[in-house]
Design goal:
- By secondary structure, this protein is α+β, with helices and mostly antiparallel strands.
- The protein has 4 helices and 6 strands.
- The relative contact order is 0.12.
Length: 112
């Protein structure tokens, strides 16, 4: 079955295929990595209440993501450090990050 026959069969099923022009890159983000596809051919298939993207070819690169670091302090901690050290909240937040969430150390570092 050729490309033309496949397109006709899909149209009979109520599916519309349109190529997407100018696609430079497709990024698939997973929990612990990203898959980058550079220079692919992409088609949009629309029908029966859904849209599907078909990605063909291209150069595939995988890269790991740095894990998200959970803050070791709360917004109340930020407010307390900002108030005690007399600094803006963002400065207090950075001091808390640098001190590993230790409030007393963050305040002392900002005052000293």
């Amino acid at each position: 079955m050729g490309g033309r026959d496949v397109r006709r069969a899909l149209e009979r099923l109520g599916l519309n295929i349109q190529p997407l022009e100018g696609v430079k890159e497709v990024v698939i983000r997973l929990q612990n990595k990203e898959i980058l596809i550079s220079g692919p051919t992409v088609a949009q298939v629309v029908g029966q209440g859904m849209t599907v993207y078909q990605v063909i070819g291209g150069v595939i690169t995988e890269r790991g993501q740095t894990p998200t670091v959970k803050e070791l302090f709360t917004e109340e901690d930020v407010e307390l450090v900002a108030q005690q050290a007399g600094v803006p909240k963002e400065v207090a937040r950075e001091a808390l990050r640098a001190s590993g969430g230790d409030l007393a150390k963050a305040i002392l570092n900002l005052k000293g």
